[in-house]
C-alpha cells in the first residue's frame, strides 16, 4: 500500500500513461480527490476509486490517455 502523499504525486503520471494504472492506498483524502479531478479535467483520463474491504484499503484506478513524446527531427 502506497503512502498517501506518494499516491497524490502519481495521479498525473497515471493520467498520462498508456493503459490501465492502479495504486492501493489508505482512505483517499479531499486532496487526493481534488488531484484526481484536476487530472481528469486536464487530460480527459478516467479515474475510479473503490474500497477493498478485505484489507481496509482503497484502489485508485485510471485509464490513461497514452501521451507520447512529440519531437521533430532536425
Topology of this structure?
Elements: H1 4-16, E1 18-25, H2 30-43, E2 46-52, E3 57-65
What would you note in describing this structure?
This protein is an alpha+beta fold and 74 residues long. It contains two helices and three strands. It has a three-stranded antiparallel beta sheet, with helices on one face. A hairpin with a 4-residue loop joins strand 2 and strand 3. Helix 1 packs parallel to helix 2. The termini are far apart.
Give the beta-strand count: 3
Portion of residues in helices? Answer: 25-40%
- The general outline is elongated
Q: Taking Cα atoms only, what radius of gyration do you get, to the nearest Å?
A: 14 Å
Strand order of the largest sheet: 1-3-2
Major beta-sheet overview: 3 strands, antiparallel
Structural class: alpha+beta
Distance between the termini: 45 Å
Signal peptide: 1-17
InterPro entries: RNA3'_phos_cyclase_dom, RNA3'_phos_cyclase_dom_sf, RNA3'_term_phos_cyc
Domain RNA 3'-terminal phosphate cyclase: 6-49
Keywords: Signal
Short description:
It comes from Oedothorax gibbosus. This protein has helices at 4-16, 30-43; strands spanning 18-25, 46-52, 57-65.
Short descriptors:
74 residues; 2 helices; single chain; alpha+beta
Amino acid at each position: 500500500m502506497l503512502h498517501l502523499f506518494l499516491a497524490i504525486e502519481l495521479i498525473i503520471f497515471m493520467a498520462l500513461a498508456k493503459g490501465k494504472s492502479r495504486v492501493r492506498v489508505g482512505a483517499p483524502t479531499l486532496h487526493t480527490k481534488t488531484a484526481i479531478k484536476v487530472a481528469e479535467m486536464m487530460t480527459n483520463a478516467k479515474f475510479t476509486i473503490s474500497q477493498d474491504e478485505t484489507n481496509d484499503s482503497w484502489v485508485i484506478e485510471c485509464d490513461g490517455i497514452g501521451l507520447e513524446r512529440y519531437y521533430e527531427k532536425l
